[in-house]
């Protein structure tokens, strides 16, 4: 298509004008195809005129990760391996594949959203402070994080893929993935994926980032949970802290956009018991301004030529470098675990965290 645009002169801007290419994700289906696409697109359009859409970057709450981290002083000192135990990034959907069999089958959940949305969320959570919010400065920091990602040595133990089976969703009985219209009944496409990654740098070494996504899960929710280490010593009777969990800061990307902080508090009464409580910031309560839809924001930015919220080709390629070995492993090892629609994914995903002595949050 890009070559046809060039052939018919539609890619050449008239004087004092511009021509821009806006490309939807997924950009390629692996590193090789992404490189080939980048080559073709860059032959026709100058690099600065190519806008790759990852609509998560257009979401208000995703941009707020930068405000939360770099406009405040209280979070940054604890945003590192000395205090953070692990990070969980969840993108759960209650819908199935709907009428998208043609697009989805063969692509699957990891290529559909981990390669782009979830790795972008991870990068923004993990980056160092950029020198400015100029696109080049922000990309430079994201590239450092993506290049420092380390895959688990045993992909069988630290990645899981699943496929939804029949079940109940919102009071209705729904069919399993293999019975959806247009799906090959022997398809091995994943509708659920969970992976463990680490970031090999001074700030994050040894802190696992668990990323999971799935269709036909319990409810539609996207969140980033930064889970902190337990206090090294608790000067209370052991019964007093039985119900104390780990402190956490949760960026609620959607719905009910906002931020929650979970910490322990004394239960009122004569005994000294400590239990988890939460403190909430909700966009709906704090602001009267409405948030533009992600695509409204992104299309406006394309018209203005502002590339800050668009992944550059190096980010796309590095993200495929992270995902390709996992997809290759899945291709040659077994098939997706089944999970009932309406639940929280395959038991194998719970076992994956249990092996690390952790458990998934129920968002
Ligand atoms: N659905 C979503 O929530 C989101 C989707 N996206 C991205 O949007 C893109 C499309 O997804 P979605 O709309 O959900 O998918 P759909 O399958 O619903 O729609 C794809 C559309 O593209 C058309 N199409 C496919 N191949 C060709 C072709 N070779 N030439 C012309 N038309 C073609 C199809 O036509 P026909 O019906 O005739 O086959 C169909 O109308 C994907 O890249 C996806 O990653 C991004 C963010 C969110
Ligand atoms: O990019 C995609 O995102 C949608 C979910 O978007 P959201 O803004 O509703 O979270 C997902 O359904 C789709 O499969 C994927 O292509």
Automatic annotation (TrEMBL):
Reactions performed catalytically: D-glucose 6-phosphate + NADP(+) = 6-phospho-D-glucono-1,5-lactone + NADPH + H(+)
Coiled-coil blocks: none
NCBIfam families named among the record's database cross-references: zwf
Gene3D superfamilies in the record: Dihydrodipicolinate Reductase, domain 2, NAD(P)-binding Rossmann-like Domain
Pathway given in the UniProt record: Carbohydrate degradation; pentose phosphate pathway; D-ribulose 5-phosphate from D-glucose 6-phosphate (oxidative stage): step 1/3
PROSITE patterns, A to Z: G6P_DEHYDROGENASE
Cellular component terms per the entry's GO annotation: cytosol
EC number: 1.1.1.49
Protein name: Glucose-6-phosphate 1-dehydrogenase
SUPFAM superfamilies referenced in this protein's UniProt entry, alphabetically: Glyceraldehyde-3-phosphate dehydrogenase-like, C-terminal domain, NAD(P)-binding Rossmann-fold domains
Keyword NADP annotated: yes
């Amino acid at each position: 298509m890009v070559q046809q645009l060039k052939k018919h002169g539609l890619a050449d801007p008239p004087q004092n004008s511009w021509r821009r290419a806006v490309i939807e994700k997924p950009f390629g289906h692996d590193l090789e195809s992404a490189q080939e696409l980048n080559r073709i697109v860059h032959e026709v359009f100058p690099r600065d005129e190519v806008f790759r859409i990852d609509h998560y970057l257009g979401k208000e709450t995703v941009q707020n990760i930068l405000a939360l981290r770099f406009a405040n002083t209280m979070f940054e000192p604890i945003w590192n391996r000395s205090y953070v135990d692990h990070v969980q990034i969840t993108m759960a959907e209650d819908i199935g594949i709907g009428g998208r069999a043609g697009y989805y089958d063969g692509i699957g959940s990891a290529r559909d959203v981990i390669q782009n949305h979830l790795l972008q969320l991870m990068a923004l959570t993990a980056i160092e402070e950029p020198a400015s919010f100029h696109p080049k400065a922000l990309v430079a920091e994201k590239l450092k994080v993506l290049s420092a990602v380390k895959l688990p040595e045993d992909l069988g133990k630290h990645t899981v893929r699943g496929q939804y089976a029949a079940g109940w969703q919102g009071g209705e009985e729904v069919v399993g993935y293999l019975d959806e219209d247009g799906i090959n009944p022997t398809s091995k496409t994943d509708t659920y994926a969970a992976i463990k990654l680490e970031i090999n740098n001074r700030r994050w070494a040894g802190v696992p980032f668990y990323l999971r996504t799935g269709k036909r899960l319990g409810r539609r929710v996207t969140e980033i949970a930064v889970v902190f280490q337990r206090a090294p010593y608790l000067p209370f009777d052991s019964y007093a802290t039985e119900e104390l969990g780990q402190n956490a800061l949760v960026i609620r990307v959607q719905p009910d956009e906002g931020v929650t902080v979970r910490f322990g508090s004394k239960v009122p009464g004569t005994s000294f018991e400590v239990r988890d409580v939460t403190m909430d910031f909700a966009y709906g309560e704090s602001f009267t301004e409405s948030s533009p839809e992600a695509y409204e924001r992104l299309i406006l930015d394309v018209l203005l030529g502002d590339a800050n919220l668009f992944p550059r080709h190096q980010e796309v390629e590095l993200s495929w470098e992270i995902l390709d070995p996992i997809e290759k492993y899945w291709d040659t090892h077994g098939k997706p675990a089944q999970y009932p629609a309406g639940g929280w994914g395959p038991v194998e995903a719970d076992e994956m965290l249990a092996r690390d002595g952790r458990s998934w949050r129920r968002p």
